[in-house]
Amino acid sequence: TTIPTPTTSTTTSSTTPCEPEVCTWSEWFDVDFPSSGPNQGDFETYQHIRAAGKQVCRQPKQIECRAEDYPDVAIQQVGQVVQCDVHFGLVCKNEDQTGKFKMCLNYKIRVLCCTPNYNCSLPVIPVITTSPTTSTTTTSIPSSTTTVTTSTSTPYISTTTSPTSTEIITSTSTTIPTPTTSTTTSSTTPC
């Protein structure tokens, strides 16, 4: 019996994986200037930015806010009460400030906008390729040796009533040879 093992080859298609989104930071927006008065402040909201003719993406992923006069100082360390929120932008109200002058600094913001990356190919997926392999099983039954057994008995003479009558009993036993059988099974591995 001969049974070849089907061959399976694994090919990994390597393409450079890329991000499903392309994200870029916007320009720095500073469309409002703080004015004095308790109901005033600095409002760098998406609504104000769009009203000033600038474009801001609909759903920014991140936001950065800075004081114009202190660009290297984190917004939390400037010392003013400011809302810097990715959902609406920046709001600084004069009435929320402490100290003698109670006036907001001038702030600017930028946002991270993302769009789907249509040029990104699909993630790397191993491709399993099975080459069609024919598996052949051959079973051979060896031809049996033809055995012919012949038995011949010695003639037996029966002396019953008539001495001239001779009864010869011959016994022959023959084994019929079994024909040679060859079974071939072919199967093809499906793709």
Automatic annotation (TrEMBL):
<keyword id="KW-0964">Secreted</keyword>
<dbReference type="InterPro" id="IPR025155">
    <property type="entry name" value="WxxW_domain"/>
</dbReference>
<feature type="domain" description="WxxW">
    <location>
        <begin position="25"/>
        <end position="113"/>
    </location>
</feature>
<keyword id="KW-0732">Signal</keyword>
<dbReference type="Pfam" id="PF13330">
    <property type="entry name" value="Mucin2_WxxW"/>
</dbReference>
<dbReference type="GO" id="GO:0005576">
    <property type="term" value="C:extracellular region"/>
</dbReference>
<feature type="region of interest" description="Disordered">
    <location>
        <begin position="132"/>
        <end position="191"/>
    </location>
</feature>
<keyword id="KW-0325">Glycoprotein</keyword>
<protein>
    <submittedName>
        <fullName>MUC5B protein</fullName>
    </submittedName>
</protein>
